[in-house]
Design brief:
about 290 residues; 9 strands; Sulfatase; Alkaline Phosphatase, subunit A; alpha/beta; two-stranded antiparallel ribbon
Length: about 290
């Protein structure tokens, strides 16, 4: 299996499906798209790691991002106070010529995420930027939780709120500061998250927030989560199917990382957890 070779490969448009694992994608993609599919090895097991290890250098890309970690705020990943807990001194705006924060403009409060149609709308509304850039990336949030038919996403909502709060603090819009307690909290939180992520129970507990309790009790965590996950992937692919017909050029569909459902004791996805469920991603060169 070859490495993902995201930037080294030939494409005009790259559609990134966040957390799309290869095996589930390979089972369903041909209901929506035609093309040549390969299994490739990602450079990261989470979005911050993938972005840091993939998007180095300078790139003339119009990047439509539904993921708050890839943003135009100018805050390095290692300084984000919510969600990343990493040492990566990487900022999207330092490496990508034009980042569109669709995670802000296309957010749906009821769903707790950016629905697929918000991504395509943002792309269609910014065609001048697309035409000026060498290449374009359209980074959908799905099949990553929250699961759209649940409509009660929690985790991504908290990450988004935290990043926006930090943006306001650093721009001086929020004068509350927070003092020493806030400083202590910002120091301790990453350490607490690191310990919790080593616990399989803690990983599963975070996933339970996104699942239907009745289905969870009846079918168990893995079966329930994978059912919602496949449904999320199919919803995204329906939108991608329509979008690719509008794209004039070479189109690739891939993922930043996969998603784990108990493989090797891992649930969801975590930084520098290099197991096949998280590192094996699809690479589909689309036939139109």
């Amino acid at each position: 299996m070859q490495d993902q070779r995201f930037l080294e490969s030939e494409w005009d448009y790259c559609i990134v499906l966040d957390a799309a694992r290869y095996d589930v994608f390979s089972d369903v993609y041909d209901d929506y798209l035609d093309g040549s599919l390969e299994k490739r090895w990602s450079k990261g097991s989470s979005t911050p790691e993938w972005a840091y290890r993939t998007l180095d250098g300078d790139h003339d890309i119009a990047y439509f991002s539904s993921n708050p970690f890839i943003n135009d705020l100018g805050i390095p990943l290692n300084e984000l106070k919510w969600g990343a807990s990493c040492d990566y001194e990487w900022t999207a705006s330092n490496h990508i010529s034009n980042v569109f924060d669709v995670w802000k403009t296309g957010w749906d409060d009821d769903l707790g995420t950016v629905p697929p149609e918000s991504m395509t709308n943002a792309f269609r509304q910014n065609q001048d930027a697309v035409e000026e850039a060498d290449r374009t990336v359209i980074h959908f949030m799905q099949p990553h939780a929250p699961y759209l038919t649940r409509g009660k996403g929690q985790k991504l909502k908290q990450i988004r709120k935290g990043i926006r709060r930090q943006e306001e603090e650093e721009s001086g819009e929020d004068g509350s500061g927070g003092g020493i307690l806030s400083s202590i909290g910002n120091t301790v939180r990453p350490k607490v998250e690191s310990v919790l992520e080593e616990s399989q129970f803690a990983m599963k507990a975070g996933l339970w927030l996104e699942l239907d309790p009745v289905s969870l009790l009846r079918d168990g965590t893995r079966a329930t989560a994978m059912s919602y996950y496949e449904e999320n992937l199919r919803i995204a692919l329906e939108e991608v199917e329509d979008l690719v017909e509008e794209l004039d050029g070479d189109v690739v569909v891939t993922a930043d990382h996969g998603e784990a459902f108990g493989e090797e004791g891992v649930w969801e996805h975590h930084i520098e957890t290099h197991i096949p469920a998280l590192m094996e991603v699809p690479w589909l060169e689309v036939d139109k």
